[in-house]
Write a structure and sequence with these properties.
Order of helices and strands: HHEEEEHEEEEEEEHEEEEHEEEE
Number of helices: 5
Strand order of the largest sheet: 1-2-6-7-8-5-16-19-18-17-13-12-11
Helix content: 10-25%
Largest sheet: 13 strands, antiparallel
CATH architecture: Beta Barrel
Strand content: 35-45%
Number of strands: 19
CATH superfamily: Acyl-CoA thioesterase, double hotdog domain
Distance between the termini: 38 Å
Number of domains: 1
CATH class: Mainly Beta
Radius of gyration: 19 Å
CATH topology: Porin
Structural class: alpha+beta
Length: 309
């Protein structure tokens, strides 16, 4: 390991709780390019029946590596944040092998960075997923007013939101799919509350989910993984076990940073066809009308025993 890479791992990895917790590491760096590795782990399993990795794990690695490439493209240090990210899943991946990602920032303007990335396991020629992402440059820096325990301070008097009714989370919740648990959903700690008309997915806050300790803010990949899990579980419930959804593509738009507090998500199954389903996801923290992210994904409706697309 070169001194430059060792220093990047010290600053970029070790200081970010989520990156440190999952064991990610920078493996290469050059002008406008970066590579990262994520070690194999049983927690990354997303489809126990077919032994497939959860797509959210790929998204976490891709988002992190794309951010690394943006930093390598900048001539001077600037804060930046993911605007949107799209994943295309090309082939199956298992949790028993390390994941690798190579990213390149191919266009840099005064305000936006454009990045492409490939995720692979066995070799760089056998791509597991491709990524397209954009990042906003010169985003605000500084911590938000948060009270102990991860609860935001009350809205100041006169704020436009102060006159609106306060959304209250359901009082009870349970683990998702308790009879057939998903290890990655268990790692994130995702739970679900059933209301009269919809399922409300919940991501309890814990320090290991933070990606930017300076704000602090949840890792963008964690938010994406949460949304992807919500979409998959919603489809599983809708399909009643007849078929199992497998990700084809997933895109997410980040509207504001996720604060260090519990997050929620709800899904709309736009269409279920004979082979493909489309699901839209809204993720929020304080109020459903003020989402922190919106996402959509296509899923192949395959026989539970089928491994490949």
């Amino acid at each position: 390991m070169t001194p430059i890479i060792a220093e990047l791992n010290r600053k970029y990895i070790n200081r970010a709780p989520h990156m440190r917790d999952i064991g990610a590491a920078v493996t290469a760096i050059s002008r406008a390019k970066g590579s990262m590795m994520l070690p194999a782990r049983e927690d990354w399993l997303g489809d126990p029946q077919r032994g497939l990795i959860h797509p959210g794990v790929l998204t976490v690695l891709a988002d992190s590596c794309c951010g690394l490439a943006v930093g390598a493209a900048l001539k001077e240090q600037l804060p930046y944040a993911t605007l949107d990210l799209r994943m295309d899943y090309l082939k199956s991946a298992g949790p028993d092998k390390s994941l690798h990602c190579d990213a390149a920032c191919y266009r840099l303007t005064r305000s936006v960075a454009f990045v492409r990335a490939n995720v692979w396991q066995d070799s760089a020629e056998q791509i597991v997923a491709t990524t397209q992402a954009t990042f906003m440059l010169s985003t605000a820096v500084g911590s938000r007013p948060v009270t102990p325990g991860g609860v935001a301070q009350p809205t100041p008097a006169g704020d436009a939101l102060a006159t609106e009714s306060i959304w209250l989370a359901p009082l009870t919740s349970e683990a998702v799919l308790p009879e057939t648990p998903i290890p990655y959903a268990q790692y994130l700690g995702i739970r679900v509350s059933q209301t009269a008309d919809q399922m409300i997915f919940r991501l309890p806050y814990r320090d290991e989910l933070v990606g930017n300790p300076r704000l602090p803010a949840l890792h963008g990949g964690v938010v994406a993984g949460f949304c992807e899990t919500a979409a998959i579980v919603q489809l599983i419930q809708s399909l009643a076990g007849e078929k199992f959804p497998k990700g084809i593509d997933f895109s997410i738009d980040y509207l504001r940073s996720g604060r260090p507090k519990e997050s929620f998500a709800s899904c709309e199954v736009v269409r279920i066809g004979s082979r493909v389903a489309l699901v839209q996801v809204r993720c929020w923290q304080d109020e459903p009308k003020r989402p922190i992210a919106v996402a959509r994904g296509h899923f192949l409706l395959a026989d539970p025993s089928a491994r490949d697309l």
